[in-house]
Amino acid sequence: MTMKRTSPGGPVIWVLQGAHAGDNAQARALGEAVGRELGGSVLEIPLEFNGLYRVPNLMLGASLRTLSADARARIAPPWPDLVIAVGRRTVPVALWIRKASGGRTRLVQLGRPRAPLGQFDLVVTTPQYGLPPGDNVVRLTLPFTGPAAEADGADVARWQERLNGLPRPWTAMLVGGGRWPFRLDEAVARDLAGRASSFVRERSGALLVSTSPRTGTAVGEALKTAVDVPAHIHLWGRDGDNPHRAFLALADDFIVTGESVSMLAEACRTGRPVWIADLPRAMPALGLGGGLVAWACRHGLFTPPRDVARVHDRLVAGGHAAHLGGPAPKAWRPVPDEAAMLVGRIAALLGH
């Protein structure tokens, strides 16, 4: 367990850490943001789960039965004022803590809890999860993150020197990988390289390509061979130092493969133009509107499938991004800083 901050008089905050690093980073960032604002202590509690986590949350209720023996031992009084947790697996644990506290502990759940939404004081979600609106539901534009990690100045300077021979403007292309229902194979990679090259050629600039672990070797090579404009292409795991953070610092604008909400968030939060490179889908987006669906979601009986197209729609509607090959917004707008609003909602729950 990790104690992040301690100051007298503020709330005791537990951040439940689960199975997924990206989810944990969001919960940690929110706990630290609340701790900075209100003081008190922020305790990160790692959780390991047994096979019972597969049982639906609606059946588990408030329970520690899904935890390993070691993890159960970490859940002990004195009980916190606030629990911040993320995803499905942590839900029974958070509910159990509130029950053990006599109802005093406030619960903030991130993502999609796959449980009745009314069980939580606050549900913090993003458009891809399709949760219905509610008084206790906060829908952010993008996943919550802490202050952006600044690229190392010396590293940025090294990359600036290496790239100086390329014509400006520099367009950084951040490439993810195939993730159902999106497809990124060698044919799609060649098409993506062609679209990006056309975009850059029209502006007489250069392309800075950074792939990721999910891209794969064959897909990365296909993309590299199909780029036909001035470029620096970094293939994950093959080309030495990773320039990802330096590209975020140096690029004039960005092309981002649309399946990756995290990379879209990184690019959009630079405040520079972002172009979404749409990938082919294995199935069309589902229209899941309607009162019965919303009712079932609120009561934990149905969870809409993840659909990042909802994130794209919100970014485009807000002028924060545009589709590659489509029109630019009338005016590019920075993504709103929603941290103060969210921390304020949580502070109100705690009586601050």
Give structural attributes.
352 residues, alpha/beta, 2 domains, 7-stranded mixed sheet, 6-stranded parallel sheet
Describe the structure.
The chain is of the alpha/beta class. It has two domains: 2-141 and 338-349, 3-Layer(aba) Sandwich (Rossmann fold), CATH 3.40.50; 153-282 and 316-323, Glycogen Phosphorylase B (Rossmann fold). It contains twelve helices and 13 strands. The protein has helices spanning 21-38, 57-60, 69-74, 91-100, 153-163, 186-202, 217-226, 244-250, 261-268, 291-298, 309-317, 339-349, and strands at 2-5, 12-17, 41-46, 82-86, 106-110, 122-125, 137-139, 170-174, 206-210, 231-234, 253-257, 274-277, 322-323. The chain has a seven-stranded mixed β-sheet with strand order 1-3-2-4-5-6-7, sandwiched between helices. Strands 10-9-8-11-12-13 form a six-stranded parallel β-sheet, with helices on both faces. The two termini are 27 Å apart. The model has no long low-confidence stretch (mean pLDDT 91).
